[in-house]
Amino acid sequence: MTQVTYRIVEHDGGWAYKVGDSFSETFPSAAAARAAAARAAREQRVADATAWIEFETSAGEWVTERADGHDRPETSVEG
């Protein structure tokens, strides 16, 4: 199973959560960023319907694949 970690970091004059290389919007406090990260982490774990998805790879190729809506990651919040 995939693990997704939301990290609380200082960002752009405030606080944000970061997943991989992506930052959330900026919050005025670490507590506000942590609360937003906790909400996002809970939502990430909610099962959805199985669907066909299409996306472009970094090489410019389009891929179509079946996404199992019940294959949700484990999530955590750090910081």
What features would you describe in this structure?
Helix content is 19%, strand content 43%. The protein has one helix and six strands; from the N terminus they run E-E-E-H-E-E-E. The protein has one helix spanning 30-44; strands spanning 3-11, 14-19, 22-23, 51-56, 62-67, 74-78. The protein has a four-stranded mixed β-sheet, covered by helices on one side. Strands 4-5 form a two-stranded antiparallel sheet. Strand 4 (51-56) and strand 5 (62-67) form a beta hairpin.
Task: Please provide the count of β strands.
Answer: 6
> What count of domains describes the coordinates?
1
Low-confidence stretches: none
Number of helices: 1
Quick structural gist:
The protein is α+β, with helices and mostly antiparallel strands and 79 residues long. The protein has one domain (3-78).
Brief descriptors of the model:
79 residues, 19% helix, 43% strand, globular
What's the arrangement of secondary structure elements?
Layout (H helix, E strand, L loop, with lengths): L2 E9 L2 E6 L2 E2 L6 H15 L6 E6 L5 E6 L6 E5 L1
